[in-house]
Target: Sensory transduction protein RegX3
Amino acid sequence: MHALLVEDDDRMAQALGTALAQRGHTVRRVARAQDALRHTREAEFVLLDLGLPDLDGTELLRRLRTVCGVPLIVVTARCEERDIVQGLRAGADDYVVKPFRMAELMARIDTVRRRTDAHADRAAPGPAVVRRGDVEVDPAGRTVTVAGAEVRLTRREFDVLALLATRPDEVHSREEILDRIWGDAFLAASRSLDVHVAGIRAKTGRSGLVRTVRGYGYQLGGER
Model:
């Protein structure tokens, strides 16, 4: 697999590049946002530091998500809850705070890639379009429309919504959603799922589209 490593610290870049190469990955390392945008189409997954010299990393993440859908993990020293929430909402598949254990990061990369590959394998044929009022969720086409206008969700936001839509009359536990989408049911104490549900509600403008079942999980709800 070809990794795009966006990291301006030479020592960190060398350590990450060596670890990735030892696992059989080829690596292109860049230190600036403009170079990341130039080379993103050749990447099969991205490791992104947020502290870049020419552009804020969160803004770069948003721009990358407009041109590529490959797995992307933020690897950064920013550890405030606000930064983590912004990174996840902007489209990161995972968020790792420095300092970290290299073995853990490699495991997270493997998990994200397996999940992405599994979604690709299930792409066709897909389930039917699900409608809730003026909201349409098309799992096969990976589109969401509200009152006829397409709404752009991050890949993971869409995955959560599509999972709920596959069995719209059932309540899905947090553990099931985390296991199916994140690949780890033991992340139940994290806020990642809640952040993505909030993103779905905000972007669609339909706060009732995802219904919270307190103490258990989520269900596809009405449109309002």
In short: The chain has two domains: 2-121, 130-220. The domain at 2-121 is CATH 3.40.50.2300 (Rossmann fold).
